[in-house]
């Protein structure tokens, strides 16, 4: 589904984050991108979202070169990106309103887009229907993240990109939303790519974990984690071992 | 702020005025009850209502015009780094100039009619709104913009769904901050070359007819004009920016 071909990327006047970097991601896979601050994981997500562009190489999704945000990709940011002046309901409807604003032009919105589920379905599905008329400032961090997820899923994407989505949440809410994200991805057959700096989160969410630990990144250091998302995986022996392995890898690189 | 507190403050000011009038005991400072009596008499039988309407028209026209020109300009400049780089030096130089000193220049160019008076009010409000809206638009969290872009929004949708609603409080704040100055400048512009407007009314009653209670009645009318506009902006903010008042 995603083909990253020999990309290079650097912010102006800064040393490059990626050099000749390639990676392939298949449809329906769940990936976690793990690494310390400044390693380029959020940049990679923005490149995949079509919000930034490589200075060398190319990124293709479903055989099409990425030149702008793709209507079938959904992005959820760390601070949720909710409009403070819109209620929960209006925020959930936002993507649909943007699509109506442009019409089915194939550029900003897919041609003949007919959402399978209404905004009311997503409000209920994410358990935020009771707070639909509240503003983001009136709800908790977990509810804000649920709103952001509902807003993105209402557009029925096939690729879900998440940037440190649960980092500012308490542990119980975080685990709850991690499980919800995995079940929604399985239900809707989404390809999931989550950026995180938390090893445990990467091991819970990613069936494949991409570790970015040296700048510039040239090769993809990928760890297989096939049990991710299965019942009882969190806290299991495999889970602990992979967490320890990743911790050693990250410590080794930063030492 | 509670309405009761505002009412109490108004009563306190009237009491201070009454005390000052009793102490001074001169015709140039009549007692508030006498002024209020004249105020209502002038409203019913005199021509104060016409003067009030003319002043209201001039200040409203200046405000509406400045909002419709300055707000889109501020949004465009704040939303584009290139435009900001080009226009910011001009704004930097022009913003601090006290626009009231341009009154004679504007009259020379636009004559002595309503156009000049509205143009001066426009000049004062324009820069206030422009600067506040530009700063609001350029200071928007990049995550908010990226988030909407990821939902498919291009430049037009960004303006419709982010820049415009985000700048609405800035527009209203600029209006609120400028109302006092606008009404003051309105008074100055109505002192000459007109026979209508509260500025003319106050000056004529006080300096020509020496009718001090009527002059103070004009001052009350002008204060009510400013206060009414202030309350209107507050009302609009509560109606359009509900999210700012939630807890």
Structure characteristics:
heterodimer, A: 255 residues, alpha/beta, Rossmann fold, 6-stranded mixed beta sheet, 4-stranded antiparallel beta sheet, B: 247 residues, mainly alpha, MetI-like fold, 80% helix
Fold blueprint:
The complex is a heterodimer of chains A (255) and B (247).
Chain A: E1 2-9, E2 18-25, E3 30-34, H1 41-49, E4 56-61, E5 64-65, E6 73-76, H2 88-102, H3 119-125, H4 141-153, E7 159-163, H5 171-188, E8 191-196, H6 199-205, E9 208-211, E10 221-224, H7 237-254
Parallel strand pairs in A: 3-8, 3-9, 6-7, 7-8
Antiparallel strand pairs in A: 1-2, 1-4, 4-5, 9-10
Helix pairs in contact in A: 2-4, 3-4, 4-5, 6-7
Chain B: H1 3-24, H2 32-44, H3 48-79, H4 81-94, H5 103-110, H6 114-138, H7 142-150, H8 155-189, H9 198-208, H10 212-240
Helix pairs in contact in B: 2-10, 3-4, 3-6, 3-8, 3-9, 3-10, 5-6, 6-8, 8-10, 9-10
Walk me through the structure.
The complex is a heterodimer of chains A (255) and B (247). With 255 residues, chain A is α/β, with parallel strands linked by helices. Chain A has helices at 41-49, 88-102, 119-125, 141-153, 171-188, 199-205, 237-254; strands at 2-9, 18-25, 30-34, 56-61, 64-65, 73-76, 159-163, 191-196, 208-211, 221-224. Chain A has a 6-stranded mixed beta sheet, with helices on both faces. Chain A has a 4-stranded antiparallel beta sheet with strand order 2-1-4-5, with no helix packed on it. Chain A contains 7 helices and 10 strands. In chain A, 44% of the residues are buried. Chain A has a domain at 1-67 and 190-255: P-loop containing nucleotide triphosphate hydrolases (Rossmann fold, 3-Layer(aba) Sandwich). In chain A, a hairpin with a 2-residue loop joins β4 and β5 (64-65). Helix content of chain A is 34%, strand content 20%. In chain A, α2 (88-102) packs parallel to α4 (141-153), α3 (119-125) packs antiparallel against α4 and α6 crosses α7. Chain B has a single domain (49-241), classed as MetI-like fold. Chain B has 247 residues and is an all-alpha fold. Chain B has 10 helices and no strands. The longest helix of chain B is centred in the C-terminal third of the chain and has 35 residues, at 155-189. In chain B, 80% of the residues lie in helices and 0% in strands. The mean pLDDT of chain B is 91. The A-B interface holds A 46, 49, 51, 69, 71, 73-75, 77-86, 94-95, 97-99, 101-102, 108-109, 134-135, 137-138, 151-152, 155, 161 and B 141, 143-144, 146-154, 156-157, 160-162, 165-166, 168, 241-243, 246-247.
């Amino acid at each position: 589904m995603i083909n990253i071909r020999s990309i290079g990327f650097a912010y102006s006047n800064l040393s490059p984050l990626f050099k000749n970097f390639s990676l392939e991601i298949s449809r329906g896979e769940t990936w976690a991108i793990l690494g310390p601050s400044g390693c380029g994981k959020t940049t990679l997500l923005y490149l995949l979202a079509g919000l930034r562009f490589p200075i060398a190489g190319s990124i293709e999704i479903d055989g099409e070169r990425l030149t702008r945000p793709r209507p079938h990709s959904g992005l959820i940011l760390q601070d949720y990106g909710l409009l403070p002046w819109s209620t929960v309901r209006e925020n959930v409807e936002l993507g649909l309103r943007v699509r109506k604003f442009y019409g089915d032009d194939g550029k900003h919105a897919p041609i003949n887009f007919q959402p399978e589920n209404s905004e009311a379905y997503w409000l209920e599905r994410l358990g935020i229907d009771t707070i639909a008329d509240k503003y983001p400032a009136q709800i908790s961090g977990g509810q804000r993240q649920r709103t952001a997820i509902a807003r993105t899923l209402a557009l029925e994407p096939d690729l879900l990109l998440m940037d440190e989505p649960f980092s500012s949440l308490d542990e119980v809410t975080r685990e709850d939303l991690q499980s919800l994200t995995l079940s929604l991805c399985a239900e809707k057959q989404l390809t999931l790519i989550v950026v995180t700096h938390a090893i445990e989160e990467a091991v819970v969410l990613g069936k494949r974990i991409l570790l970015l630990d040296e700048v510039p990144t040239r090769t993809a250091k990928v760890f297989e984690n096939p049990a991710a998302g299965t019942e009882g995986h969190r806290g299991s022996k495999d889970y602990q071992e992979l967490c320890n392995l990743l911790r050693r890898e990250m410590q080794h690189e930063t030492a | 702020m509670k309405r009761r507190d505002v009412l109490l403050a108004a009563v306190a000011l009237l009491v201070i005025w009454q005390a000052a009038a009793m102490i001074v005991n001169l015709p140039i400072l009549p007692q508030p009850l006498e002024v209020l009596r004249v105020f209502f008499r002038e409203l019913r039988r005199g021509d104060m209502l016409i003067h009030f309407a003319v002043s209201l028209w001039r200040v409203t026209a200046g405000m509406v015009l400045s909002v419709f020109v300055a707000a889109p300009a501020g949004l465009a400049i704040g939303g584009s780094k290139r435009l900001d780089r080009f226009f910011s030096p001009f704004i930097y130089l022009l913003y601090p100039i006290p626009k009231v000193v341009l009154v004679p220049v504007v009259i020379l160019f636009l004559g002595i009619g309503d156009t000049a008076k509205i143009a001066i009010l426009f000049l004062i409000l324009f820069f206030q709104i422009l600067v506040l809206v530009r700063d609001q638009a350029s200071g928007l969290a990049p995550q908010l913009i990226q988030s909407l872009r990821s939902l498919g929004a291009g430049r037009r949708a960004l303006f419709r769904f982010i820049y415009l609603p985000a700048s609405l409080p800035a527009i209203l704040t600029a209006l609120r901050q400028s109302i006092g100055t606008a009404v003051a400048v309105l008074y100055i512009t109505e002192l000459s070359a007109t026979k209508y407007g509260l500025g003319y009314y106050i000056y004529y009653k006080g300096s020509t007819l020496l009718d001090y209670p009527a002059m103070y009645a004009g001052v009350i009318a002008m204060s009510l004009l400013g206060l009414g506009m202030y309350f209107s902006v507050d009302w609009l903010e509560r109606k359009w920016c509900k999210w700012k008042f939630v807890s």
